[in-house]
Amino acid sequence: MRTILITGATGFLGSALVASLLAEGHRVKTLSRNDPAGARVRAAAGEAARGFGLILNDRHWELLSTVEVDFRDLRSTLHPRILEDVTHVWNSAAEMSYSLKKILPAMEQNVMASSTLYALTARHARRCQRFYHVSTAYTAGFDVEEVHEALHFTPRLINAYQLSKWAAETNLFQHHQEMKLPLTLFRPSAVIGHQATGWSTGVSFGLFCLAEGILHGKRRNAGQIHLDLKEDARLNLVCIDTVVRRARELLRAEAHRQPVEIFHCVGDESLRVAEALEPAGSLLGLRVVFGPPQLEVDAEIHRIIKKNKPFADSTWHFRTDRLKQVLGDAYVPQSMNREIIRRSMMHFLAHRLQELAQEPGMATALAMP
Ligand SMILES: NC(=O)c1ccc[n+]([C@@H]2O[C@H](COP(=O)([O-])OP(=O)(O)OC[C@H]3O[C@@H](n4cnc5c(N)ncnc54)[C@H](OP(=O)(O)O)[C@@H]3O)[C@@H](O)[C@H]2O)c1
Q: Could you report the per-residue pLDDT of 218-228, keeping only the tens digit for each?
């Protein structure tokens, strides 16, 4: 029986992975911070299970054990005994802020904590077969048309998140040279909600940051907004259930495995920015026009979305040859369409509207049409 150690289990990807692995009958151990009895992990995994349409009974929940740690000091707070029976690690926890003011916490968590966890696993988890590190496809940086499943040596990086995720890949690769625990760098593109249910956690990251900008127009009672984005650029979006499916397939795959692997977990590039954002506008009853800000509300929206503008305005093509080779027939491409985006946007906006409705005077102004 596998025992899979997961970090980031209070978040979007990690909680979905926990719920799905428990449902499959695996033992799961989580490392989380500020979570003495594991209540945050259990609540997040419960939400994810509902979002995936999974039913977890007591037998499933008994397979979960939670451990509170301080990621800044894993050597003291992660007892080697916890690692003894671990067969695989999925390291998903990450400081997600783009702000360069957050570069220190980003380096501490994304680089140092990830490397320390790898080193402790290599040393104490004798049964561990592989360390999976969740990175991002955007460590490729900008001005790269075709991104290979390989380390990037001199990428053009623009924010603390991208920089620290890139540094973590390089650092883990170096650790592997010394410690030899097999390593997989798993790079999703921009993750959106579940294909069938639209479920996500309502965090305004990636595409949802752009939706948050449109939502701001609704909060300000605008009938039309201008988004300063290239409407014809192509977005690469991947659904959370595809991410989790690929993770589970990798845990099962035995052929063509390498000591160090780098995989892209991505969708296709069929959707234009305008097509991806149109559902948010129509769900909120707003006309979305692409072009420079015209009014004060457009300028406010621009301040919300500008950190993601360089990503939305660029088109990347991510190679997946290696992942296809390892997964063989299990690899089914994830194609994107307007209906999937609409479901995802609907779930995200409903979640955010519910949160915003708690603010005084917002309830009536913000109902979806
Ligand atoms: N979402 C995407 O579109 C996307 C795309 C590509 C790659 N990824 C990668 O997927 C992974 C998970 O992302 P996500 O979307 O699930 O993010 P998320 O929902 O924001 O979850 C982040 C997780 O990391 C933990 N975390 C954040 N800062 C931390 C810190 N300083 N110390 C310790 N733990 C910390 C959070 O714990 P707390 O609850 O304690 O804050 C949470 O469990 C990340 O590695 C990210 O780079 C995500």
A: 999 999 999 99
58 CA distance to ligand 1 centroid (A)?
Answer: 27
Residue closest via CA to ligand 1's atom 2 equals 191
Q: Which of 23, 28, 123, 27 shows the shortest CA–CA distance to 78?
A: 123
Domain made up of 201-235+270-314+336-357: CATH architecture: Alpha-Beta Complex (3.90)
C-alpha 94/C-alpha 144 separation (Å) is 24
Question: What would the pLDDT profile of 171-223 be if each residue is shown by its tens digit?
Answer: 999 999 999 999 999 999 999 999 999 999 999 999 999 999 999 999 999 99
CATH number of 3-191+237-265: 3.40.50.720
Q: What is the DSSP letter of 100?
A: G
CA atoms within 13 A on the CB side of 188: 23
Q: How far is CA 61 from the centre of its chain?
A: 24
| List of residues 6+ apart from 259 with CB closer than 8 A | 176, 180, 182, 183
Determine the atom of ligand 1 nearest the C-alpha atom of 13: 16
What's the burial of 265, exposed, middle or buried (CB within 10 Å: 0-12/13-18/19+)?
Answer: buried
The residue whose two tokens read 């965090």 is: 203
